[in-house]
Amino acid sequence: MQKFYGLFTLLVLAFFACNEEALPGTFEWSKEQGFSFEENYYSPDSLMYFKITDIQDSRCPQGATCIWAGMVRVKLSVHTSVVDTLWLDTYNNQSDTIHDFAFQLMNVSPYPELEKEIEKEDYRVSLRIFRI
């Protein structure tokens, strides 16, 4: 019976070792992925992690007539050997670097609607992150 449990344990470990999906809370380099507000996300090599600490959305809501389309700003807290702050926006700063890492803002959803408030926890921020 002890051999059975040992074999079963080895099979379970082999299954998880072969699974190519990223662990929860990790991201893949260079791949566009969605991230939530105030959650920690770790690089595959654990050299860096970040979280989205603020979202400022001034985009013209659907159903409204606006002079300017507006923009959304996303604040990242990036943790390496030190902690730095990075702001990305959809107007003129869609990408920026900190240390050996580049962040590219791809999309922020949901898009605002007239007379509907979006809670920060409901946003999903699409980023591509590169190691440079």
TrEMBL record:
Alphabetical keyword list: Signal
Keyword match Signal: yes
Signal peptide per UniProt: 1-22
Protein name listed in UniProt: Lipoprotein
PROSITE patterns (UniProt xref): PROKAR_LIPOPROTEIN (PS51257)
